[in-house]
Amino acid sequence: MDGNNYNNNNQNGSSDSFYSYNNGSQSNQQTEHANEGNVNQYNNSYQNTNSYSQNAGYQQGSAYQNGTYQNTGYQQNGAYQNGGYQNTNGAFYQNAQTTGKKQKKKRERKPGGFGTKLAKCAAIALVFGLVSGTAFEGVHLVSSKAFGNDETAVSDSGSQNALTKADNKVEATSTSSNYVATDVSDIVSSVMPSIVAITNVSETEYQSFWGGMPQTYESTSCGSGIIVSQDDNYLYVATNNHVVNGANSLTVTFNDESTVSAEVKGTDPSTDLAVIRVALSSIESDTMNNIKVATLGDSDSLKAGNSCIAIGNALGYGQSVTVGYISALNRQVSVSDSESDTSYTADLIQTDAAINPGNSGGALLSANGEVIGINSVKYSDTSVEGIGYAIPINTAAPIINDLITKEKVDESDSAYLGIAGVDVTDDVAKTYNMPSGVYVAQVTGGSAAEQAGIQKGDIITEFDGKLIGSMEELSSTMEYYKAGTTVDVKIERSTNGEYQEQTISVTLGKKN
């Protein structure tokens, strides 16, 4: 029956009682309508409806009047009248069934009738079953002992378990009694003082509707950071490169809502990592007493299914907490940053803990509060939910340490390679079947590159052990090297249409 039909036919009574019953609710409204003796309500919806009552035979046919509902005891002796259905929702059915049809009286049964015979038969069958069952089990036991085929695998209740009776069993999965915390407030309160919010104020260039020279406007973006180190003069905060990229000014907001200025200490675009530093002299004493340096964990010991916690400045509203699990490890993810026009591929931790804009650079924590990753990427698609990524802390820690300890070289002593290059992004590399890196478009005569044997057409992929994906990465990396330093540079050179890797030792020159 169409529900709309039923509702329309029931409007003369009460349409509410249809929806109440249909939804399974035991409403007072339903009982109230029935007890008022609203026979028209029932007649309209059950008796007068062609599709349900008269033509379908539900009331006048065998199923309702002459069959199970009325005459077989279902209504009078069963669940409708004497059972729990009347006492809960029963008023609706009992009173609403006053359609003028006379109900038959219950026939009395004499002692010693069919019931007595049935009981005797059941008793005889039971005795026969017990005797035959015992005999069969005895024979089975004797034969098992005699022929060495003892299938006695039983469950805890003592009955044989059909799922474990095979001779060559595949090992069953084990269970764990490890306690999983559902309240992480203690961990969060301990770690939160080591997490900061970062605000990046930069200039964004855009093309005017009317054409002409490009215009610029000041834009603000937000991210997160983790306090990882401190020396006598500075507090060092690890974050993502894309959080601080292009910054004209940076500010850091601590857990107590105090805000101070910061500066970029170093960046590594190839891994999307950066370190910023805050002068201790700019931090008030109360804030110094409140903040903490984060404890780093071991991301190599992680397993899929481990609990984790993400803390970060989601949407720029301030620090927030999400929880989830380690979904997978060593996920190879290709990431493109449209703002810096760079791309890189990395092995990341996948998690279903919510990672939202502003969480970048924040901490992914283990269940005991150690930093196991730096939140970096969220897979954003209408068909995808619960896929975020973090840089493993074991990957990030040595890079962060280098960014903290290495100092940029004064421009007068800075190193010079002597090439002009073009970025080979991952998309370009796939399209033209070539390695990602920096395509050497020109080599300056007499430069360090020429003297070392680097040629036009080579693709630089590594510089002193660091992956290189763009000219920007190569230039920013060389800022930490003095002229005269010797480094290994990995290149891919095309030979007979195929690229082959070579390592070339280069003594860096001086620009001037």
Descriptive keywords:
512 residues; alpha+beta; Thrombin, subunit H; six-stranded antiparallel β-barrel; six-stranded antiparallel barrel; 20 strands; 27% helix; disordered N terminus; Peptidase_S1_PA; PDZ_sf; Chloro_Bact_Ser_Proteases
Please bin the fraction of helical residues. Answer: 25-40%
CATH secondary-structure class of the largest domain: Mainly Beta
**Strand order in the largest sheet:** 1-2-3-6-5-4
Please describe the biggest sheet, giving its number of strands, its sense, and whether it closes into a barrel: 6 strands, antiparallel, barrel
Overall outline:
extended
Low-confidence stretches: 1-108, 150-160
Strand content: 25-35%
The named CATH superfamily of the largest domain: Trypsin-like serine proteases
